Amino acid sequence: MAESTAAKKNITNRKPKVLKRKLSKKQLTELYYYMILNRALDDRISSLYKQGKFHGGAFVSRGQEATSVGSAYALEKGDVIGPMIRNSGAVLVRGVPPHEFLANYLGKKTGPTHGKDGNSHFGDLKRNIFAPVSMLGVLIPVCAGAALAFRIKKEPNVALTWIGDGGASIGDFHEGLNFAAVMKLPFVLILENNGYAYSTPTSKQSLVEDFVVRAQGYGIPGEIVDGNDVLAVYDVTKRAVERARKGEGPTLIEAKTFRMKGHAEHDDASYVPKKTIDYWQKRDPIANYEKYLLKEKVLAKKDLAEIQSTVAKEIDAAQTFAEESPLPLAEEAEQGVYAS
Amino acid sequence: MAESTAAKKNITNRKPKVLKRKLSKKQLTELYYYMILNRALDDRISSLYKQGKFHGGAFVSRGQEATSVGSAYALEKGDVIGPMIRNSGAVLVRGVPPHEFLANYLGKKTGPTHGKDGNSHFGDLKRNIFAPVSMLGVLIPVCAGAALAFRIKKEPNVALTWIGDGGASIGDFHEGLNFAAVMKLPFVLILENNGYAYSTPTSKQSLVEDFVVRAQGYGIPGEIVDGNDVLAVYDVTKRAVERARKGEGPTLIEAKTFRMKGHAEHDDASYVPKKTIDYWQKRDPIANYEKYLLKEKVLAKKDLAEIQSTVAKEIDAAQTFAEESPLPLAEEAEQGVYAS
Amino acid sequence: MSNITYIEAISKGLREEMQRDESVFCLGEDIGAYGGAFKVTKGFIEEFGEERVIDTILAEAAIVGVSIGAALMGLRPVAEMQFADFISNGWNQLVNMGAKTHYRWGAAVPMVIRLPSGGGLHAGPFHSQNPEAWFFHVPGLKLVAPSTPYDAKGLIKSAVRDNNPVLYFEHKYLYRHVKGEVPDDDYTIPIGKGEIKRAGKDITLITYGSMVQFSLEAAENLTELGVEVEVLDLRSLLPFDKEMILASVRKTNRAMIVHEATLTGGIGGEISACITQDAFEYLDAPVKRVASIDTPVPYSPPLETYFMPNTEKITSALTELAEY
Amino acid sequence: MSNITYIEAISKGLREEMQRDESVFCLGEDIGAYGGAFKVTKGFIEEFGEERVIDTILAEAAIVGVSIGAALMGLRPVAEMQFADFISNGWNQLVNMGAKTHYRWGAAVPMVIRLPSGGGLHAGPFHSQNPEAWFFHVPGLKLVAPSTPYDAKGLIKSAVRDNNPVLYFEHKYLYRHVKGEVPDDDYTIPIGKGEIKRAGKDITLITYGSMVQFSLEAAENLTELGVEVEVLDLRSLLPFDKEMILASVRKTNRAMIVHEATLTGGIGGEISACITQDAFEYLDAPVKRVASIDTPVPYSPPLETYFMPNTEKITSALTELAEY
Ligand SMILES: Cc1ncc(C[n+]2csc(CCOP(=O)(O)OP(=O)(O)O)c2C)c(N)n1
Ligand SMILES: Cc1ncc(C[n+]2csc(CCOP(=O)(O)OP(=O)(O)O)c2C)c(N)n1
Ligand SMILES: [Mg+2]
Ligand SMILES: [Mg+2]
C-alpha cells in the first residue's frame, strides 16, 4: 500500500537495532528481573483466577513484558506514567510491590484502592502513577495534562502512557495527541500493536498496518520498535523521553508485539490462528532476552535461575500477604467520594 | 517540515489544474449562479443581522463559496450531504430555496424547522440533506452512517460532509473517518482549511500545515485543492465521489480557502492580520471565476450582470416571503419531540 | 413457549426482528464472529452475514453516530455497547444529534442502543453502572429496562420497531440469573406501559430491572406482617407509566421506589415528585426511596453489597413504611 | 465595593485567584488573545502570560482530560467551555476519570469547569442548555450556580480552592442583565450553603441561577394576595443545602421548586423527593415544580418563551399553591 511505503520513509525500521546506549550489568539484570516479575505475577493472577479466588475478571500481558518494562525503565523518578491494563510491568518497574496487585485483585483493604477498584486499576501519586479507567484513550489527554503541568511548573519531567491498537480508534487518542503536539508537551505515547483488540484483529481496526504513520498527521516523530525486544524498547523510549525533556515535544512509538493470551482470562482466544501464535511464541520477549544475556555473557544460567527463584518467592509472599489481608469494612463504601 | 514534504508526495498539488472534465455551458453557468446566490444570501443575512432583525447569531461564508458550490455540484441527487455552517452554498445547490434560510433565521413557521432551530441549522430528508448540530465533528460519523446505509441497501450513492480546520481537532473526526476507511464506505470528507477557528489560527490547531496528511493515517487518499477555484473543487470532488461510488472507499479532501469575515457577524475579526485579508481578497472565488468565464468566453459581461440581477430579485422575494411569514404559535414548542 | 434465560430472550427477540425486517442490522465491538462480549449476537453473523452484523472499530461515538446516520436513511440499527458504561463515549452524539433531530427538523431516528448494565457481579466502577437517569433528562430519547425474559423479548421488538432512539437497558445480573416462559411467537410490549407484578392494597412499590425480583421477595416477606405490597414494574422509564403509578398509590396510600442506580438524581426523585404532585391527598406516609448510595460502584464484595439495594434492605424499608 | 455586572464579577474573582495562587491557570478555546467568546478572560493573557492562559485546540475531551492530568499534578486548572452545551464532548473524561478518581485511589482532582449556560437569548438548541441535572447524578462532582454578582465572585473563588472537580454554571442571560455591589476584597461563599434571598412565612420557593430574579419578582406579586413567599437561592446544587430547605418548609408548610432546566429528571425531582421524605408531616400542599417543558430548547422567540419559566408562570404557580 502506498501509505505504508511513504510512512516507512519517516519511521525507524522495526528491526531491533544495535543498542545505542550501553547499559550496565545492573541495569541489564534489572530489566530481566522486572520482566520475570511481570510474568510471574501474571501467571499467579491466572492461576488465582482459575481457582475462583477473584471476584471480577483478570487481565495479563504475556508476550508484552518487554514493552512495559523497557519503556518504563527509560524514565526518571519524577516522570509520570499512565499504565493501561497490559502495563503491570511498568508499574512494577516504578516500584509498586506485587502484593499490591494481588491485594487489589482480591478486593482487600490493603490494596492500593482499599477495595474500591479491582485488578490493576490503581494509581499511586507518590510514585507518579495515574490509575487507568476502563474507557480506553482517557489517559492520553490526562497524561498530556501532566506534561502540561510539568511545563507550567518548569519541572524537567515527562509523562508517558500506552494505548492499544484498539484504543487508538477512540477520539481521545486524536484529541490528546494533537493537544500535546500543538503545545510541544513533554509527552510520549506508546502504541502497543498486539494484533487484537479483544476479538477484533488489527486489520479491522485500521487500514494502515503501521499506526505510527498517524504521527505525521500531528507533525510529531513516530518510531516503530520491536515490542518484544526489551533493549530496543528501552532505547527508543529513552530517545523519545530525551527529546521530550529538551522541549522538542511528543513522540508516538509503535511497539509491534502480540497478546499471547485471550483478552482476559475468561477468553480462550480461539479466534487467533494457531500459526500466528506459533510465530510469536518463537519471539517470546523473555526467552529472547535470556538468549541475549547468555550470549553476551551478562548473566549465566544460574543467575537467571536465581532471579527466577527470588521472584517466585516474592510472588508467594505477595499472595500470602494478599490472602491474609482483611477485606474492607462494608461501611467504607461510603468514604472518599470527595477530597477534603 | 519533514512531514509536510513527505505528505506532499502523496497528495495532489494544490495549484488548480486544468479541468479534467469538460463541463457544459449550462453547468458552468449554474456554478456561477449558485456562487452568486450564496454570496447574495449571505450579504442579505449580514444586513438583516445588522438591522437587528434576527434573534440569534448569523454566520456567513464569504470567500468559501467555491468550496461549497463546487463540491455539492459534483454530487448526484441520491447522494447525502451533511452541510456545516459555512456550506449554505451546498444547500442551495441541492435545491433549497433562499427563503427557507431567511425564514429559518427569522424563526418563522415557514422555515424548515418551523422555528425550532435557527440560522442554517436545518435538514431536508427529501433532498438528502442532514442538518448539522453545533457540536463540530458530529456529522462525520453520522454521514459515514448514511454511507453505510447505502452499502447495506446496495444503493449506488455517496455521503459527503465538511469540517473546518478547528473541527478537525475533535475526536469524532478521527473516529468517523477511520470507521469509513476501515469499512471502505462511499464517503467523502472535505476539510475546509480557512485559516481560523473562531479567533484561533490554524497554526494553533495543528502542527502540520496540510491536514490532508492525516489521510495517510487512515490508509485513504488525500487531496489538496484550491478551495477558491470552483472548477478545481468540482473536479477533485467528482473524482473522490466516483472512487467512492466504485466501492474504493473514502477520500479526505483539503480545500485551502479563507474565512473573509469574522466567525459570526458579531465578530469583527480584528485578530486577522490585514495582509492576510489582502492576500485572499485577490483570490476571491467569485471574481476569479468571473475572469475565467469571460476569458474562456463562456459568458459575457451582460450575462453575469443578468444572473446577478436575477439573484438579487430572488433574494428580495425570499426576504419578503420570510418577513411576511407568521411566527409559530407558542404551543407548537411542545410538538415533535418524538416521531410517531 | 420455551423456558429460556433473559439473555436468550434478548437474543431471540433480536434475531426474529432481523428475520422479519431487512432494514434491521446490528453493529458493535466484537459482536460478529465472537458473538459479543456476552454472546447476545452469537450465530448472527452466520445467519445474517457481515453486512448486517458489523464488527466495528473500537469507537463508541462513531458507533452511535453511524447508527444515527443509517437510521436517518431508513435503516434500523441496533448498536451494542460492550458495557453500558461505554455509552459515555457516545454521549454527545446521542443527546445532541440522536435525541434532538426529530424535534428540530422532523427526521425520525429509528435506532436502538443495547446497554448491558448494572452491578452485583464485582465488576468495579466501570463495568457496573446504571446510567439511565442521565438519559431520563434528555427529551427525545426513550428508555426501556426489562426485568424478565418475557419482557426482554417483547421490549427488544418494540424498541426495534419504534421510530425514535431507544435505549435498551439489559441487566447483566439478570442475563443468566433469571429464566422464564417466553412465547415462540411474535409479540411486543408497548413502550410506556408498566405492569403490576404483584397486586397489593397496602403499599405501592415502584421498581424496574434488576430490582424487580428483590422487590417481589421483599413483598413476600411483608406478608408476615399482614402487609400486602403492590409491586409495579415500570419496564419503560421514559416515558414511564404515570397512570399505573398514580392509580396504585391512590389505592394503597403509601409509595416506595427502588432502583439500583445511585440515589441522588436517580429517576426515583422524579417519580416521587410526580406522586406527591398528583396524589398528595392520598398519601398516608412520605414517599420512600431505596437506591444505591451516592458513590461510584465499588469493586470489593463487602463494599458492593453495602452499596446496592437488596431484598433485606427493601424489606426493612417496606417495614418502616408500613409502620409509619 | 464596586457596582459591577455578573460577568465582571466572575472575571474579577478568577483574576484575583490567579494573582493569589500561581498554581491556578486557565485553558479553553479562544480564551487568550480573544478573551473568550464572552470576554470573561479578557486581559488575562496580557497579565498572566501564555503559559497560564492557554488557547487550546478545539477539543473538549482533551480540555477536560488535560485539566484532570494537570490537577493530579497539583495545579488548579480552570477550563472554559465556550458554551455549557459543549461539555457533552468532555462527558466521558469528566464523569469517569474526573469524578471517580478520588474515590478509587484517593487522588484529588482540584479543577473547575466554567459553563456558560442557559437560554432566553434565542440561541437555539445547542447554545442554551442547562445541563446541571446530568452531573447532579455523578457522585464525585460538585456543582455551583451563582445568581448574583456577589455570589459569582465568591463562588468562583471557592470553586478554585476546592479540591474536587467543580462545575461552575454561569448563566449567559445574567452576564450583562444583573449588576450588584461586590466587595473588592477577598471573600468566598461556602460550597453547599444556600441563602435566603427573601424571608416569608407562607411558601418556600427553592431556586437557583437565572430563576432567582424571576422568583423574587413573583414573590413580590404574591404580596398582593397577602402571601409571603420565602425565596431560597441554592447557589450550590451538589451538595445542596438540604437543611436550609427543610427548615424553611417546616415553617411555611408549602414548597415549590423552580428551575430553567427541563422538568423531567431535573434536580427539582430530587428536591421534591427530599422534602416529601423529610418534611412530610409539615406539608399542607403538594410540592410544586416549575421548569422548562420537556423538549430541546427551541429557537424562535414565541417558542422559547413558551418553553421557559418566567415571572408570570411562577406567579401563577405560586398563586395556585397558596390557594391549595
Ligand atoms: C471506550 C471503550 N470501549 C470499549 C471498551 C471494552 N474493551 C476493553 S479492552 C478492549 C479491547 C482493547 O484492545 P486494545 O486497545 O488493542 O488493547 P489490548 O487489550 O490489545 O491491550 C475493549 C473493546 C473499553 N474498555 N473502552
Ligand atoms: C465541539 C464544539 N466545540 C466548540 C464549538 C464552538 N465553536 C463553534 S464554531 C467554532 C470554530 C470552528 O472553526 P472551524 O472548524 O475551523 O470552522 P470555521 O468556522 O472556520 O468554518 C467554535 C470553537 C462547537 N461548535 N463545537
Ligand atoms: Mg490490542
Ligand atoms: Mg476554520
What would your notes on this structure say?
The complex is a heterotetramer, with 2 copies of chain A (340 residues) and 2 copies of chain C (324 residues). Chain A has 340 residues and is α/β, with parallel strands linked by helices. Chain A has a domain at 59-87 and 122-278: Rossmann fold. Chain A has helices spanning 2-10, 25-50, 65-73, 88-93, 98-105, 139-152, 171-182, 213-217, 230-245, 274-281, 285-295, 301-324, and strands at 80-82, 159-164, 187-193, 196-197, 200-201, 222-226, 251-256. In chain A, the strands form 2 sheets. A 5-stranded parallel β-sheet of chain A has the order 1-2-3-7-6, with helices on both faces. Chain A has a two-stranded antiparallel ribbon with strand order 4-5. The radius of gyration of chain A is 19 Å and the shape is globular. The model of chain A is unreliable at 1-16 (pLDDT under 50). By secondary structure, chain C is α/β, with parallel strands linked by helices. Chain C folds into 2 domains: 2-182, 3-Layer(aba) Sandwich (Rossmann fold); 195-323, Rossmann fold (3-Layer(aba) Sandwich). Chain C is 39% helix and 21% strand. Chain C has 13 helices and 14 strands. In chain C, helix 1 packs parallel to helix 7, helix 3 (60-72) runs parallel beside helix 4 and helix 9 (211-223) packs across helix 13 (311-323). Chain C is globular. Chain C starts with a strand and ends with a helix. The chains are: A alpha/beta (340), C alpha/beta (324). Chains C and D meet through helix 4, helix 6 and helix 11 of C and helix 4, helix 6 and helix 11 of D. One magnesium ion (MG) binds at residues 164-166, 194, 196-197, 259 of chain A.
SSE order and pairing:
The complex is a heterotetramer, with 2 copies of chain A (340 residues) and 2 copies of chain C (324 residues).
Chain A (H helix, E strand, L loop, with lengths): L1 H9 L14 H26 L14 H9 L6 E3 L5 H6 L4 H8 L33 H14 L6 E6 L6 H12 L4 E7 L2 E2 L2 E2 L11 H5 L4 E5 L3 H16 L5 E6 L17 H8 L3 H11 L5 H24 L16
Parallel strand pairs in A: 1-2, 2-3, 3-7, 6-7
Antiparallel strand pairs in A: 4-5
Chain C lengths: L1 E4 H15 L3 E5 L15 H5 L4 E3 L4 H13 L3 E5 L10 H8 L2 H5 L5 E7 L14 H5 L5 E3 L4 H13 L3 E7 H6 L1 E4 L12 E4 L4 E5 L3 H13 L5 E5 L2 E3 L3 H11 L2 E8 L4 H13 L8 E5 L8 H7 L3 H13 L1
Parallel strand pairs in C: 2-3, 2-4, 4-5, 5-7, 6-7, 10-11, 10-13, 13-14
Antiparallel strand pairs in C: 1-8, 6-12, 9-11
The complex binds thiamine diphosphate (TPP) (2 copies) and magnesium ion (2 copies).
